[in-house]
Structure formats: C-alpha cells, structure tokens
C-alpha cells in the first residue's frame, strides 16, 4: 500500500527496538528490490498500523548481520498517535513484525526530536567464544575463535582507545572519504560472561558515535593481540597511523550487539 510522505507533526514517537540481525541486510532500507532490512520491516508495520506514511530515523545504522537490544527509532507524530496507549502499540507491532524484530518500549518526545542527533552516547557489546569447543546455543550471536585469548594483553592494548581520537584506521575505507573520522570513546571494558551455560568474552565500548565497521575492526585488532600475534602497543600505533591498513581484520557481524543509547534526561516520556 502506498502512502504520501508524512508532514511535520505535533510531537515525536520514539520506539525502542530489539532484533536478531542475521536474516537482514542491515538496518537501513536498500534501493534494490527484495532486500530485507530492519527499517523496511518496521516501516511497513507502522504504516499498516497508522494507515499513513512514516519516515524513520534511527540512533545508529547497524550493518548486515548485527543485532540490537536497544535500537531507538523516531518519527514525527500526529495528534492521534500521541493518544495511542503503549499496550496497543506493543500488541500491534507484535502482530505485524517478523518474530526476530520486537518493539519493547514506546516514548513520546518533543517535535523535532531525532533518535540519531539527540543521542549523547551509544554502547555496543561484542561477544567472542574463545575455546576449542564449538558454541551451540549461542552460535549465531558470537565470533567463534578456537584459540583462548589473553584477557590481560587485550586490556592493556585497548586503553589507548579512550578519549577523542581520529579512528580512521578502524573504519571502512570507502565510508571515510571526505568525512570526519574523529570520535569520542568514553569507556571500554572486557569481561567474562556466561550465557546459556556457555562462557563468552565480552568487549563493551561506549562513545558519542561510531564509524562504519569501527567496533568490529577494533575487536578484530584486539583479537590479534589476544592471540599473541601482536604486542599490546601495536593497537596505539595502528590508531595513530590513521590508515586502515595499519589495523587488524574486521571481526564478523555475528558477535556485535547494539546494546544501549543515552539521551538527555527528560527528553523521552514513556507512552501511557
């Protein structure tokens, strides 16, 4: 069903969305016909529910195969939208979306609010199964490395990432052409976790924004250190080089999860 483009509304609806990204070609809609994307599925569900067109803005465009626990998506709301109770939103989205995409919270925000531009920080987590035994229950959510990683060496290496730096070495080359590549990383962490009785290594990173493939390239670089192929100081050298060729490989998409977004206090109000 075709709809006209939506005009500016009286407020903004913000959805918190979770998804398993394995079956999708990333978040953003693609011009090629028949390509499944998170945004495409979400837009179709919303337009069927609201019976009008919507234009979606997300907190961060995830690549093909990347998952999310707390992706935020905003769109301009009409007066009638703001009267819809949260329970009705959730039930409608549950009925209209595929099983691997879920809307788990609904908020109201001021007119002009943007899930992308109003975000203060974003957090990603990357999970690695670093053992000889193949992961089974978590197999679609981790990067399986048969070699145990040296946690201490990786922690030593990743300290240089905190702060405002030019992360050109850690992003996809084509996406950096003619664009600023400086970002502010606020926090990094590395810990052991257990999910479905399978031990995993979790790398967590929080920053104001991220470049294309930045987190996955950082993880691939740290894994080189964790496997003893490089010394911890090499990561700082790669960062300073501002050259993608100076860093390590890009880790697979499977292990990456968009975990959280922080917005200014009071900017989001839960739908009644």
- Please give the count of helices: 6
The structure class reads alpha+beta
Helical content stands at: 10-25%
According to CATH, the fold-level topology of the largest domain is: Alpha-Beta Plaits
Report Rg: 20 Å
Order of secondary-structure elements: EHEEHEEEHEHEEHHEE
CATH evolutionary superfamily of the largest domain: Pseudouridine synthase I, catalytic domain, C-terminal subdomain
Low-confidence stretches: 1-8
Our measurement of the CA-to-CA distance between the termini, rounded to an integer number of angstroms, reads 29 Å
Number of domains: 2
Query: How much of the sequence is in beta strands?
Result: 25-35%
What kind of sheet is the major sheet? 11 strands, mixed
Task: Please give the structural blueprint.
Layout: E1 11-19, H1 38-50, E2 57-58, E3 67-77, H2 86-96, E4 101-109, E5 121-130, E6 143-145, H3 151-158, E7 163-166, H4 173-176, E8 182-195, E9 198-207, H5 214-226, H6 233-241, E10 256-262, E11 269-270
Parallel strand pairs: 3-10, 5-6
Antiparallel strand pairs: 1-3, 1-4, 2-3, 4-11, 5-9, 5-10, 7-8, 8-9
Helix pairs in contact: 3-5
């Amino acid at each position: 069903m075709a709809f006209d483009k939506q005009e500016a509304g009286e407020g903004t609806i913000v959805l918190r969305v979770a998804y398993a990204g394995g079956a999708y070609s990333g978040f953003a809609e693609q011009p090629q016909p028949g390509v499944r994307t998170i945004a495409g599925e979400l837009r179709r569900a919303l337009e069927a529910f609201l019976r009008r067109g919507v234009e979606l803005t997300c907190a961060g465009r995830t690549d093909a195969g990347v998952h999310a626990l707390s992706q935020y998506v905003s769109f301009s709301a009409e007066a009638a939208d703001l009267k819809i109770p949260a329970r009705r939103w959730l039930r409608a989205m549950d009925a209209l979306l595929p099983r691997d995409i879920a809307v788990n919270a609904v908020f109201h925000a001021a007119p002009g609010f943007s899930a992308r531009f109003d975000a203060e920080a974003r957090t990603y987590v990357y999970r690695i199964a670093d053992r000889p035994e193949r992961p089974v229950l978590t197999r679609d959510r981790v990067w399986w490395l048969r070699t145990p990683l040296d946690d201490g060496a990786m922690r030593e290496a990743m300290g240089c990432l905190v702060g405002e730096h030019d992360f050109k070495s850690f992003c996809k080359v084509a996406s950096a052409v003619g664009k600023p590549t400086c970002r502010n990383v606020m926090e990094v962490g590395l810990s052991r976790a257990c999910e479905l009785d399978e031990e995993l290594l979790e790398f967590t990173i929080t920053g104001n924004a991220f470049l294309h493939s930045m987190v996955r390239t950082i993880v691939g670089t740290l894994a080189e250190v964790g496997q003893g192929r490089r010394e911890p100081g090499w990561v700082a050298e790669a960062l300073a080089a501002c050259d993608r060729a100076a860093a390590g490989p890009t880790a697979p998409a499977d292990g990456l999860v968009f975990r959280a977004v922080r917005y200014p206090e009071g900017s989001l109000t839960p739908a009644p």
